[in-house]
């Protein structure tokens, strides 16, 4: 393999997916369910199995109890307490033989019978696939984001009131407690205190003693952590008020709080606080290619600087089904932010990239991008399908890689254009945000965004920096591809 080929393999991959870094040791993955609804739904299916095995275990346990009782009765041994009575027992060669045979042959068999509970083994196999601590942490990060980005009250969240959406679900004390500890560990003491108070209010000790042993929230411990959280940002002079707070209704605001930090621009965008966009043109575009004369595009000009267009009905329901329906968690990999364009590395979503020349469908989609843009899509499809998960987001980033800062990327040129197809409606959360230009786009199934990432002189266009709001409700599937500057050598002359 020539050096160019090696370089290209690396760059093409990173180009296809501005979010992904593969094969780094620290991120060699454990299973992570939280970062896609695809994986979470498979976890839910595992829960079905787990409960089925548990139910079936109870049935077979009942049968086992009956069997063992019959065996015990059939042996009908009386317990011999004294040495003398036992000596007398073994003095009889027939009873001695019986003893020896039972111990040699029967005991291991009965033990094996008891141990060989199919269901227990299968539950063991499921537990081996259970979410790890890092996964749990991802889920807590997702919940924390939902609370922070949408400026929600913990009390509302617990009651299923999430940014105007009403879920028919309540959070229980163990769930409040993990969030409280998580906030505490992040030194978010006020938020931790709110979650500890909600834990305190929701403690319901199970009646069953075994279940009570599993139950984590402990009244005294929760009370102690609430007070420590309050004192971390408060004063010992107010301790009496803090103690009273704990007994108050959890909807009553805490007292003596520091002011909340101001919302970031992205947070304001996610809350729908951007000013309404200027009315730009919306039209049918018949001009660019023969394809468009047959099937005119519903084109909406979203922004002039940077150039952003939105196209409606450019991917059909059957194409979307083919792209998402049979894709399993197994088929997908974890997507990360890459540090060319973001600061910290984070897990984002699950992703599947077509790297080759593609199937017919991939080819069709790439051709459609070519038709829409009049640009050259290059030799490889590099289409990436992504599925977001619990509170998943994408921090602000640019899709350009900034060739000047990263000269190793020079062969391909930068990512000139980004195409983003929305394959699902997202009822709440999951908007695409361009914070520098006050723009929020809510995913609409079948539509596509298209924008230029760099200027004519190949300088990154900083106003194209964008992000994705944390998911609240729905299932976010997108399809994305970058068109590379290098591929446009004979096509694209300049932007304006
Ligand atoms: C908080 O930190 C403690 C101590 O490091 C750790 O044991 C615990 O798991 C953390 N809890 C959460 C929810 O992050
Ligand atoms: C159609 O789209 C192309 C490429 O996006 C653009 O250059 C052209 O001006 C558009 N035509 C009309 C009539 O809007
Ligand atoms: C998914 O796979 C099943 C079984 O192979 C097939 O019957 C079904 O049509 C596929 N669905 C889609 C949308 O491709
Ligand atoms: C990205 O992060 C890795 C590991 O933290 C570091 O080694 C590498 O230099 C970073 N790359 C850039 C372009 O900042
Ligand atoms: C974005 O909105 C803010 C007010 O919310 C305004 O000050 C700012 O100028 C706007 N920026 C652009 C690029 O429109």
What does this protein look like?
This protein is of the alpha+beta class. The protein folds into 3 domains: 3-30 and 274-488, Jelly Rolls (Sandwich); 35-73 and 96-130; 133-256, Tetratricopeptide repeat domain (Serine Threonine Protein Phosphatase 5, Tetratricopeptide repeat), CATH 1.25.40. The chain has 16 helices and 17 strands. The strands form 4 sheets. The protein has a 9-stranded antiparallel β-sheet with strand order 3-4-5-14-10-17-8-7-6. It has a 4-stranded antiparallel β-sheet with strand order 9-15-12-13. A two-stranded antiparallel sheet has the order 1-2. The radius of gyration is 31 Å and the shape is extended. The site of one 2-acetamido-2-deoxy-beta-D-glucopyranose has 4 residues, from helix 15. Its cofactor is L-ascorbate. Residues 360-485 form the Fe2OG dioxygenase domain.
Give a short overview.
It holds the Pfam family 2OG-FeII_Oxy_3. With 496 residues, this protein is an alpha+beta fold.
Helix content: 40-55%
Output the structural class.
Answer: alpha+beta
| Total DSSP helices | 16
Mean pLDDT: 85
Apparent shape: extended
Bound molecule types: 2-acetamido-2-deoxy-beta-D-glucopyranose
Unreliable stretches, pLDDT < 50, 5 or more residues? Answer: 1-27, 492-496
Radius of gyration: 31 Å
Level-2 CATH architecture of the largest domain: Sandwich
Task: Count the E strands.
Answer: 17
Q: How many structural domains?
A: 3
């Amino acid at each position: 393999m020539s050096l160019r080929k090696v370089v290209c393999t690396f760059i093409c991959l990173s180009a296809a997916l501005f979010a992904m870094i593969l094969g780094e040791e620290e991120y060699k993955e454990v299973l992570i369910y939280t970062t896609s609804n695809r994986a979470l739904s498979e976890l839910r299916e595992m829960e079905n199995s787990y409960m089925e095995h548990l139910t079936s275990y109870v049935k077979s346990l009942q049968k086992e109890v009956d069997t063992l009782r019959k065996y015990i009765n059939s042996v009908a041994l009386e317990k011999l307490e004294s040495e003398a009575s036992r000596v007398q027992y073994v003095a009889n060669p027939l009873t001695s033989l019986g003893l020896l045979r039972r111990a040699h042959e029967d005991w291991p068999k009965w033990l094996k019978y008891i141990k060989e509970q199919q269901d227990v083994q299968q539950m063991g196999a499921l537990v081996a696939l259970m979410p790890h601590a890092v996964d749990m942490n991802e889920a807590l990060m997702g919940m924390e984001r939902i609370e922070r980005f949408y400026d929600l009250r913990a009390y509302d969240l617990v009651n299923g009131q999430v940014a105007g959406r009403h879920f028919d679900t309540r959070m229980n004390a163990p769930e409040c407690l993990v969030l409280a500890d998580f906030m505490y560990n992040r030194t978010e003491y006020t938020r931790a205190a709110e979650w500890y108070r909600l834990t305190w209010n929701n403690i319901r000790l199970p009646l069953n003693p075994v279940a009570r042993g599993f139950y984590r929230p402990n009244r005294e411990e929760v009370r102690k952590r609430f007070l420590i959280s309050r004192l971390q940002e408060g004063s010992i002079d107010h301790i009496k008020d803090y103690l009273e707070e704990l007994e108050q209704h959890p909807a009553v605001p805490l007292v003596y709080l520091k002011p909340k930090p101001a919302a970031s621009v992205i947070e304001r965008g996610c809350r729908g606080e951007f000013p309404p966009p200027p009315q730009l043109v919306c039209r049918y575009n018949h001009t660019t290619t023969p394809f468009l004369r047959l099937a005119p595009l519903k084109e909406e000009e979203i922004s002039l600087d940077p150039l952003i267009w939105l196209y409606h009905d450019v991917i059909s329901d059957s194409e979307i089904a083919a792209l998402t329906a049979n894709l399993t968690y197994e088929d997908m990999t974890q997507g990360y932010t890459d540090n060319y364009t973001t600061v910290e590395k984070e897990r984002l979503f699950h992703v599947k990239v077509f790297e080759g020349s593609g199937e017919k469908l991939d080819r069709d989609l790439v051709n459609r991008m070519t038709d829409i843009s009049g640009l050259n899509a290059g030799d490889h499809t590099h289409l990436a399908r992504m599925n977001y998960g619990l509170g998943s987001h994408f921090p602000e980033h640019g899709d350009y890689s900034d060739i000047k800062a990263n000269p190793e990327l020079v062969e391909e040129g930068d990512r000139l254009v980004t195409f983003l197809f929305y394959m699902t409606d997202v009822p709440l959360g999951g908007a695409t945000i361009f914070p520098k230009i006050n723009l929020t786009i809510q995913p609409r199934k079948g539509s596509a965004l298209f924008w230029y990432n760099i200027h004519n002189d190949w300088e990154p266009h900083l106003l194209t920096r964008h992000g994705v709001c944390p998911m609240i409700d729905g299932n976010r599937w997108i399809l994305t591809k970058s068109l590379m500057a290098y591929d446009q050598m004979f096509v694209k002359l300049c932007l304006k």
